[in-house]
Amino acid sequence: MTEVLYMKVFSNLKERILNSEFTNQKLPDERSLASEYNVSRSSIKRALALLATQGIIFKKRGSGTFVNPIYLKNQSMFHSIGNNLGVSDSYRFDGEAPAIELLEFSKELADQETRQALFLEDGEKVYRIKRLRKIQGQPFMIENALIPEKVLPGLTEADMEHSMFHYAEEETKKAVTKSFMTVTVEPSTKQDQELMELMRNEPVGIMGGIFFLDDGTPFEVGSMRIHYKYMRYNSFISLDGE
């Protein structure tokens, strides 16, 4: 129940921040917020920690917690951060999320490499998912993902028509907030060229790695092969550990 409460507080605070409800961009202290939302201090701490991870707020020692003005001026920079790590939030055209075409959906035993990446035991299964993403009819990304069956035991092909991260949050009451990723570029393959309408000499960007739920549970290992014209990556880094 605590996890559900802190996500509700997080979502409401984020909405209030976007509506400019806080005077001088300063948030109330934790005790006041706990009283206002009628939740524990620990729920408030988790909600604020998630907002800080996304770069939406920052703490100033001795002064309190403030809204990040850079976030308010350019929110699109932060769409690849925190619970907006997914493609549906990161790539939009006039507010429209990318369309999804499911290319593959199956279930299989995890091999040794996958078990190590997702901290699985022998005999555990994963979903193998491949999807093509399009913006305004233009194919721009091929997604390949392996997700532990035990994390989303009821996952179906129909669920793949929308954001996997949003579905995971609804089912587990935990957000996908962390990732370890490698970003590279390489020549496009024949499949890349066919699916994303690329010329033989045109490259693709590759973003591959592991995504984690906010409690540290590995959620997905996979890669995104991206049309070079749509390749971009934004990152928010805190050097003070807050």
TrEMBL record:
GO terms for molecular function: DNA binding; DNA-binding transcription factor activity. It comes from the Bacteria. Keywords: DNA-binding, Transcription, Transcription regulation. InterPro entries: Bact_HTH_transcr_reg (IPR050679), Chorismate_lyase_/UTRA_dom_sf (IPR028978), Tscrpt_reg_HTH_GntR (IPR000524), UTRA (IPR011663), WH-like_DNA-bd_sf (IPR036388), WH_DNA-bd_sf (IPR036390). The keyword DNA-binding applies. Residues 3-70 form the HTH gntR-type domain. It holds the Pfam family UTRA. Transmembrane segments: none annotated. This is GntR family transcriptional regulator.
